[in-house]
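Objective 1b: paired records.
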Amino acid sequence: MKQHIRLIGWAMGISFTGSLPLGTLNLTVANFSFADNLTGVAMFAVAAIFIEMLLVRLVLLAVKQLERLKQVLWFFNLITGAVLLLLAFNSLSAAWQKLMFQVETPFTSLHPLLSGVLLSIINPLHIPFWIGWTAVLKAKHVLNDNPAAHNFYVLAIGMGTALAFTIYALAGRFLIDHLLEQQVLLNWIVGIALLSTALVQLYKAFVALPVAIVGRATSGNE
């Protein structure tokens, strides 16, 4: 039980903090709230969170399949590090150039459910973000391959995103204005955190490389 509580805490925390920076999803939640469309807020949030949880399920399957190939585990760590490094570069580049978030909310004319599904599907960060963090949590032995652990993990991610959406729905305009003012600082913080995680993953990949080479050589001799 303690292991599951720890996992839920990690997953909720990552999901919550990852959903706080301004993006089309939380901005759309705020826009529905401004229009006093609480039903729209609920429908949009449920659809967006459902898609995110579904994508996390796919990520878990992909990671599990890759981990079964012990000889390419180092390559998986390398890919994870590269993905996190790319995300870090984007955040640090935006911070260095003092770029601000561009307010765009596509699909607002569609039904909230459909809008939530489409915006969540086309979100380019869902898969690389959760591939990276899933690998990190597995390396820390916070997440294992137990089906119950996977269920808690996915559920906690949905809860973390729901909490962030709730804050945007309630705090709306004030939160957006405040985050816009602090966007550069947030980009620095997120970028440095991602860069640190990426360097750890890349280090693990290079440490595991000799083992992978030996394993391939052994398999070839057999």
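Objective 1b, second protein:
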Amino acid sequence: MRLKSINISDIKELEFNGRTVKSGIDKRPIEGSLELLKKGLVGDKQADPSVHGGLDKAIYAYTAEHYDYWQEKLGLKKLPYGQFGENFTVESMGDREILIGDIYRVGGALLQVTQPRVPCFKLGIRMNDPMFPAKFMKSGRYGFYLRVLEEGSVKAGDSIELVEKSDSAMSVWEIMQIMHAGSNMNRNEIIKALAIEALSTDWRSEFEHKLSSLS
């Protein structure tokens, strides 16, 4: 596993349905090392902190192998890293293998997986396709958020070392299926998800609400 690219952005204005919205989704690769703090990479910006960034979502990671899928699916020769709004483009970290709660050493930083990524309409703007967020979800290629347990310096090319495998046995892909099960919600699966200590606060609240609706 390796960190292939670090991508950051300033806040930019995007056109959407005849109006202007602000977003930090336009991530672009950077050269050299960058400090990773508890709330994210130095120099990276989010337009709406209520849904992006924060301690539980300091870093969004997307595996490079997903790029191969999307390039073929969309008929494109090459998509630049950062295209999906990720901070870290990583290697060999698929959604079905990475578990919620896994802890990794990346450069001088220590990070923990907290939840999958659910895209908003701004990804549709980024891809010039308002239906793309739905296609993204259907693909099962979500990527995942990480919290920073130890701050440190990171750079493209750093190895990613598994420090502690989560005992949750619930992958990024699996927990997304439980979250979006709709009328097929399973009480035991929700309880299993809630037992994961590393789960983000937002997702914990969502699962608690789902569980109460089944009572």
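The longest strand covers residues 109-116. The domain at 2-166 is CATH 2.40.33.20 (M1 Pyruvate Kinase; Domain 3).
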